[in-house]
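Memo to structure team: turn this sequence into structure tokens by end of day. - J.P.
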Amino acid sequence: MDDETHVPLYRGDVQDYLEQMRKISQKRQKQLLDSVSDECKFVIESYWYTFQITELIISSAIEHYGENTLFYQSYMRRWSGLWARLHETLNLLYDSLVLALEGRTVGANILLRPALESIITGIFYHYLAQKEYRGKASIVARIQIGRNKDTFSDLVEEAVESIGEESIIPLNLETAVTKIVLTSTPHLHVPKLKTMLKQIGEWGIINNPIEEVVYQLYSKWWVSLSSYSHSLHEGTHIKGAMFEDDIDILLGKRMDVDEFRVFSQKFNRLCHIILIFYLNSTEELQRNNTFSAKASEFLKDNPTAGKVLHDVTEQIEKFIASSRSID
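Reply from structure team:
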């Protein structure tokens, strides 16, 4: 990629600048595809199957329960907050995908941490919105928020009361908590990601011990992804230039294809994590014959999904078998 094309030249015409950007993007995409075509396919399929599976859960529930029934409306509201966070996560994953497929892996990596944080936050508030789980939230009940002796559980109850109508608590709980926190002087404290993971582990949402959940997702994953957000040396273009002994990586004239290979594995694994969390949190929506039929059709039409998302498709197959036994 030569000096004249790796950065658009601004000549005072925005349309012209955007057209140059488009051409440079296409050129970078082609160069990346020529170098690491298998990894490009792996990343695209990881995102696409993640998107399709999450859509499958909602579409099958709508079809099964009937969109205009009171039962459907009350039933689906229970997952509304989680659904909103899921789409925030999917948006971040897609933005990461777009950057990655131009070989802009540093920027693509930066978006993976908020994608992980978003789905974990969504699950955390999804269960807090349910009274039975608030009563079993012993970990957050010990977290001080910086207001007298109040704990985060006290803050959640205050937010629940401010919402009023029980049916809309799932969609509005996180927003209500945030409003109280930011309008207080000084601002109050909310649980950090590590605490959220401990609470999710205590609830048993994932079939792993609390210590393992925290280690795998915080100590191993979140800390690693933070190197890009904090611009530590190992998460910069500088590292690629030094390791490859090629200053053009730092100058943006050459893509670091080795870093893309690492990114492809990381992106795929994050898709696994997001799907496992979402599947476990929406299990009730999957125990019906409509989901069973649609999921079976999906797996049949997408034979490579099992290779790309192996443990996820195994879990779906278990849901299919269990729903058939119930029906």
